[in-house]
Design a protein that fits this description.
Layout lengths: L9 E3 L2 E3 L6 E4 L19 E8 L21 E8 L11 E5 L5 H13 L7 E5 L10 H7 L4 H18 L10 E6 L1 H12 L6 E5 L20 H9 L6 E7 L16 H15 L2 E7 L7 H15 L3
Parallel strand pairs: 3-11, 6-7, 6-8, 8-9, 9-10, 10-11
Antiparallel strand pairs: 1-2, 4-5, 5-7
């Protein structure tokens, strides 16, 4: 794969300009929902199953309180499962784990109904998992999504998938090429982290406004800049992993006008740098820069999700 041909994103006088590399594209500033985002009358319709997991049921995530070390704060977590009409009971099925799941449930059900029926993606289950709550440093969600380790993937593997398999009668594929993870913001960082630390489980990643910035808490000296380390060090200094990555960022995404350095909290710059190092390392990736779009912008998601899923599941 050729190297990117132009410099990184520049932040000049508060204006962001996107770099363009061999696997990069820019869309907007106007958006229309993709046709596949609308339900088609008469087509096969999957079903949604739902259950709630209490924090007391989790060995890996019993609760967190930033200002009171050792205190356990209880929470509830909703899990919704999309099961396609074409699923054959007892047969191992590909699947996608969706972080911050309920925000995506209706979107994913509709688009997968349409894409599966058109045979543009494999028949698959979507496991949409809510976080434990809160946001950013010190929160349960931040602990789950922004921590640079394999723990969240291990939580999904040992606590979520077995529950879904039991309650919904699903047999999940063990083939890592038939397992994907997706999300937005810190949920996108979590999706990449699942695949990065456990490529034997996950090899396909879909990211909207990925939080590839310094938001890890508690801090870890092995990765002092949190998910910023992916493009700063990890991707270039680690042997290439068998991952396929689709990424998006908005022109006015979080921290878009913060100079880098000293800030490690500019989402646009972080995603630009991700695309640069993925290209240099020869990864299979696509990067979409959305003009006039914000953070996990709903109009950008509606315009891109069908094509993103189709690309993600190729090969």
């Amino acid at each position: 794969m050729p190297l990117r041909l132009v410099p990184l994103l520049l932040v000049v006088a508060g204006l962001a300009t996107a770099a363009t590399g061999p696997n990069d594209s820019s869309i907007g500033p106007d958006y229309k929902p993709a046709p596949e985002m609308a339900a088609k009358p008469g087509g096969p319709k999957g079903t949604i199953r739902e259950f709630v997991i209490e924090s007391t049921e989790s060995k890996l995530y019993p609760g967190i309180a930033k200002n009171k070390p050792g205190e356990v704060v209880p929470y509830k977590r909703k899990v919704q499962v999309y099961i396609p009409a074409q699923y054959v009971s007892g047969k191992p099925v590909p699947f996608i784990v969706v972080t911050d799941g309920p925000w995506y449930t209706k979107r994913m059900a509709t688009v997968l109904d349409n894409l599966i029926a058109a045979k543009r993606v494999p028949v698959q289950v979507a496991v949409m998992v809510e976080s434990g709550g809160g946001d950013s440093k010190g929160s349960q969600r931040g602990l789950e999504y922004d921590t640079m380790s394999g723990k969240y993937a291990e939580f999904i593997e040992t606590e979520i998938l077995p529950r879904v398999a039991k309650d919904c009668g699903i047999v999940f594929s063990k083939n890592p090429d038939e397992r994907a993870a997706m999300g937005g913001s810190s949920g996108a960082a979590a999706a990449l982290t699942m695949a990065w630390y456990h490529p034997e489980w996950y090899r396909r990643v879909l990211s909207y406004s990925g939080t590839f910035v310094n938001q890890q808490y508690p801090e870890d000296p092995k990765t002092p800049h949190g998910a910023w380390e992916y493009h700063e060090n990890l991707i270039m200094k680690t042997p290439k992993k068998p991952l396929r990555i689709w990424m998006q960022v908005g022109e006015k995404d979080n921290g878009w006008d913060r100079p880098v350095p000293p800030s490690y909290h500019n989402w646009v710059e972080a995603n630009e740098r991700m695309a640069t190092v993925l290209a240099k390392k020869g990864y299979a990736y696509q990067y979409v820069f959305c003009k006039n779009a914000g953070h996990v912008d709903g109009k950008a998601v509606a315009a891109t999700l069908p094509a993103a899923l189709e690309w993600l599941w190729k090969n």
